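Chapter summary example.
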Amino acid sequence: MYNKVLKQKIESIGNTANYKVYQEIAEHAYYYKDWKTVIEYSQKSISIFPNERGFFLLGSASGFASLMENKINSIFYLNKMKYGFKNSYNFNAENIVYLKALLLFYSKVPKILGGNMNLAFKYANELKMISEIEGFLAFAHLAEVNNNFKEAKEQYLNATNSFDIINQDCNNLSLVDINRRNLLYELSYGQIKFGFVSNNTICMLQFLESSYSLSDSFPKKWLYLRLAKAFYFLGELDNYESYINKAMLIDPEFIEVKSFLNNLGE
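The structure predicted for these 266 residues follows.
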């Protein structure tokens, strides 16, 4: 279905192409995670009319494409990734998604390939000025990257407390910015890793499950594994087994599930 619609969109371009036509194709490909098509058509879009969304699509798709290449070939995509994210940020320096993207780039990419921890902290501080919760999550990530797990746990706990005040009993989850659904996913990661799982953890993850779409950046099997872990830590073993089975149904060779199960058996 995707290829058929994509072909129709490309064939309809004719001699009337403008940046919106190219960007529509890029958006369609982005939804279905066809990263190389996104790169091709977002570049065509911004070559006609530079715009923040086009640059972000280029940066994001390039980042995902780099994960599918060996180290040498990934350099090509990492350069496009940085170019796209920096330019989207230049259009809108207070956009949380752009700031988060730059923080992740500079903190995760090796220094020799463009990583820069000082810049990562710069963007973390900018995030904190815009959103307290985003700031806590940003500094938790940076602490973990630098193997400061005590600080990471403290920052995740700060984020959890701040989030719980706003979203008591998960009543306001539907108000979470659709562009920051990852906030719930990131928050649950810290809660599970550092051992302060609560019913709100389950609530957040099941909200993501019930509203999951192809546009989400986290694979559904990972969401199921995270739910399984959360239920396990709460002692709800029937639900734990149910989500383990759901994850394995998607990927019977899911290495992370097998590793988790092996660790439980030790």
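To summarize the output: The mean pLDDT is 90.
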